[in-house]
Predict the structure of Geranylgeranyl diphosphate synthase type I.
Amino acid sequence: MTAESLGSEQSRFVADVAAKLNGFLGVQQETMATISPDVAPLMGSITSLVTGGKRLRALMCYWGWRGAGGESAHPDIITAGCALELFQAAALIHDDIIDRSDTRRGGPSVHKRFSQLHEGEGWALDSERFGHAAAILTGDLCLSFSEEAFTEIGSRAASGTAARRIFNLMRAEVMAGQYLDILEEVAGPVRDRAGAVDRAQSIIRFKSAKYSTEHPLALGGALAGASEELLQGYSAFALPLGEAFQLRDDVLGVFGDPGTTGKPAGDDLREGKRTVLVGFAINQAAADDSSYIDTMLGRQDLGEAEVAEIRRIIVDCGALEATEAMIEELSNEAFEALERLPLADLPLTALRQLAEAAVSRAA
Amino acid sequence: MTAESLGSEQSRFVADVAAKLNGFLGVQQETMATISPDVAPLMGSITSLVTGGKRLRALMCYWGWRGAGGESAHPDIITAGCALELFQAAALIHDDIIDRSDTRRGGPSVHKRFSQLHEGEGWALDSERFGHAAAILTGDLCLSFSEEAFTEIGSRAASGTAARRIFNLMRAEVMAGQYLDILEEVAGPVRDRAGAVDRAQSIIRFKSAKYSTEHPLALGGALAGASEELLQGYSAFALPLGEAFQLRDDVLGVFGDPGTTGKPAGDDLREGKRTVLVGFAINQAAADDSSYIDTMLGRQDLGEAEVAEIRRIIVDCGALEATEAMIEELSNEAFEALERLPLADLPLTALRQLAEAAVSRAA
């Protein structure tokens, strides 16, 4: 009974968000068409990016709203979901430039799409540079759209509301967190090794946990007028959940199956990501192995043999085990906090399912 | 009398915007400090960038507001000026990455500041890549701040208001215009030469004229409740003014004195900007000279001799003269439209002064 109504309600919300995104981008497309047909690829990139995805953030927001007594299928929560999806698309576009990731969900990333357009058309100068420039602008446009959608909510998201404060904080924190992430890639090798795990944990808190789970859930709650107490309860659940989610992502970034993740194996290692997993390895591995990781991380030309060797070190020194134990611990913390939440059956079950999917996924 | 009160009123507004920016960024800095002391350079870059500048957009907005009957020193117009300055800073940060400009107002651009930080600290991996990544994130943060400030205006800028529509349109159009600009750099050489001037004019309309003058003036007017008729009158003045302003900028980008502009001589040529000035040259110069420009544009290694040769071609074929004539014509159109505006003496004089400074500046 509950499972059935939950599934259909959730599917309906996802469909409503998709329809709203479609309508919103359709209106934007009309404006763009008055400027020049040449700008179509910017809109095409954004549309294609918001079409896929797990919609984790929109769903967290939805159940945060429902848990706080918001009506199902209310236009405000659909619009909020739409704003979160647009923000995520903007973040992914710029992220992929920063990480030099040429693939996204099994297809070319936005900067790669523009490089390919350049090459296909036989344009002058450098195709890669054009790709990066066009993707910076596409991400900026998408970031503006996200805010435009959020403002469409109207009075519940107006200046001074709790929802607006959460939305602003979410954006600032994820950008700061991303910066800490790229900083650790370059500064990590010359900073103290003992602090590597702590720094990596701080990074995932801001760039991922707060952004992917804590803030979306709180945003939904705030839009429905949740009490401060409920918001604190949400946070006690969503923050450890988000950390576990990102730790799972980090494990998949090194050990995931490319066929399932849609990313080449070992891409996180080539990007030089200094994750908690890597932090444990650097601290626990023998000196030689630890130096090997330090030398190899961030090398674009990392081959299969090197990736396999780094994996071996991570497994043998117990870093994978330590990370899995941390995921387990954070998951338990999240699920215990979830059961303490004063929620009706439906949102409680929905959040439990989302949480289970987040920490046990393979992609 | 008028000159004196105008000067003091304008100085007061500029000081109010600076103080508001200071307060706004101070609050943001407190949030950032709770994340990590490592994120300080992001805030430092933004603060340093909004400290300088001509404040053209904020002033257009102010006099648009005053012309439509808005009170002097009203908090809403100060906040709007602040939002425009933050938006401009965000645009400059990403622009400088796109154009590979290492200098901004005589100092290092943001991506260059981060590269220098990387080198100074002796960090690992590539300093240039780190600089670009950090500047993408700093621009994103600044873009979010801009919107956050704009929303602080409250009801006059709420969802559905004319001011919000203008702000949204301004952002979308400038990003689309920037894309057309980088597209022309790469696609221009293989597109028809006869259309080069028209395409360059369309680019400056969207990336510059609408953004720098038309929309800020309309925004101020809309915030003060201007009639549709007044907004149309504003546009008839500000659009040709903005085009003349950008044409002047393009001339300075090739012929300007580096000591005054704060940019190396010929930087626009190295960036491969296909401006109206260049479009005229490609159409009017002899075939050899035209091909020379096509070959040299966008080459990062362009030396003084090549820059001098391109200048010679631009002058000899009459492209400079044609561009100056266009500036003259657009200026006349703008000033005539200005005199038709039903404005009080003070805003009329102020807009006249701003317009004169915009089209006759040397930097």
